[in-house]
């Protein structure tokens, strides 16, 4: 077993290869849900849930355990961290770029959440960058995405909702 | 009642409210009038059930008797559930469901905000997570209430009737009993009188925009927080608990 030799940084690199099951273009480190890695007699990975009822939470935990097992880490523990609560601001800049390339408009960053949530902000189309877009449905294929369409290039797209 | 007992009872209530409302919404999954609302309802139900799991896990730990979140959900009797009466009411028509969610979520959101200032930090952490979800629910559901209230004569009439008939269950939300008072005193928990004032302003604003009339306070039903439920509740948990009652210990 390599537990003794695997350091925190090395483990973080391994975790950056674990994909989010619902948006596989994002890794769990891009998503910003890996809060900490502690290495002592076992490896403890601190993960923050995204939405309370997100069905991917358990799948992600199993994927983390499996990924570290594959690297030879025998003892893996998962610790769920609630504070500070995950918001879309935890998604890395690289993660936002990957989302855009994948055809999902990334969440708006910074500013007042309430303003973003209640304001009628125009979401730019991830394909042609036009801001002439229309919200079709607040809900898309998963809890975290809304459905939009672009009035210029006429393509439908998903928007990663800002929470 | 000492501080520890009040904390446990309070966390269980939060879990019961979230689970029972989530379960009610699950009953109409795959039966909503249009796809967007179908997804909204299922996603919102999932949020409540996720919140219930967090509250129950904490309650199980505080209780320290080795019970799990599942045992708290599936193996307690009707009178051990301490959710408010409002949320156990049947789904009714779409307007009934929306009215119920607006009345409850406007309260729940204020409660979740206040809980983050309490010294029960683990409750505050769950509240901080849940608040972000409930804020979204309230926005979505109040938009529907406005659309229905300010819609056709028929939708206006129906949803006004929904508000009128649910109103008698709103008083209980703000009636502080022993658990609420001890939790407020020992942990800086929510001040229900202050929440009532804020709730009244918020709900009045939504109803005004929806061209609906805010009912006068009259008879208020209560008892849910003490385990005395309306007649609908037993049927509901009988269905929810059926599998664990019929096949004890069954798991996926």
Number of domains of chain B: 1
Number of strands of chain A: 7
Overall tally of structural domains of chain A = 2
- What value does the average pLDDT of chain A take? 86
Gyration radius of chain B (Cα, Å) is 18 Å
What's the overall geometry of chain A? elongated
**Broad structural category of chain B:** mainly alpha
Text of the CATH class of chain B: Mainly Alpha
What would the CATH topology of the largest domain in chain A be? GMP Synthetase, Chain A, domain 3
Outline type of chain B: globular
- In the sheet with the most strands of chain A, the strands line up as 4-7-6-5
Ends apart, CA distance between termini of chain B: 39 Å
Low-confidence stretches of chain B: none
Summarize the structure.
Chain A is an alpha/beta fold.
Descriptive keywords:
heterodimer; A: 163 residues; alpha/beta; GMP Synthetase, Chain A, domain 3; 2 domains; four-stranded mixed β-sheet; 5 helices; 26% helix; elongated; B: 252 residues; mainly alpha; Ferritin; 10 helices; 68% helix
Helix and strand layout, with pairings?
The complex is a heterodimer of chains A (about 160) and B (about 250).
Chain A: H1 8-15, H2 28-31, E1 34-39, E2 43-47, H3 56-70, E3 76-80, H4 93-102, E4 104-105, H5 113-118, E5 133-137, E6 145-150, E7 156-160
Parallel strand pairs in A: 2-3, 4-7
Antiparallel strand pairs in A: 1-2, 5-6, 6-7
Chain B: H1 3-26, H2 35-63, H3 69-74, H4 85-88, H5 94-115, H6 121-149, H7 153-166, H8 178-187, H9 192-209, H10 231-246
Could you explain the architecture of this structure?
The complex is a heterodimer of chains A (163) and B (252). Chain A is of the alpha/beta class. Chain A folds into 2 domains: 8-80, Fe-S cluster assembly (FSCA) (GMP Synthetase, Chain A, domain 3, 2-Layer Sandwich), CATH 3.30.300.130; 103-160, no CATH class. Helix content of chain A is 26%, strand content 21%. Chain A has helices spanning 8-15, 28-31, 56-70, 93-102, 113-118, and strands spanning 34-39, 43-47, 76-80, 104-105, 133-137, 145-150, 156-160. A 4-stranded mixed beta sheet of chain A has the order 4-7-6-5. In chain A, a hairpin with a 5-residue loop joins strand 6 (145-150) and strand 7. Chain A is elongated, with a radius of gyration of 18 Å. Chain B is mainly alpha-helical. Chain B has one domain: Ferritin, core subunit, four-helix bundle (Ferritin, Up-down Bundle), CATH 1.20.1260.10. Chain B has 10 helices and no strands. Chain B has helices spanning 3-26, 35-63, 69-74, 85-88, 94-115, 121-149, 153-166, 178-187, 192-209, 231-246. The model of chain B has no long low-confidence stretch (mean pLDDT 96).
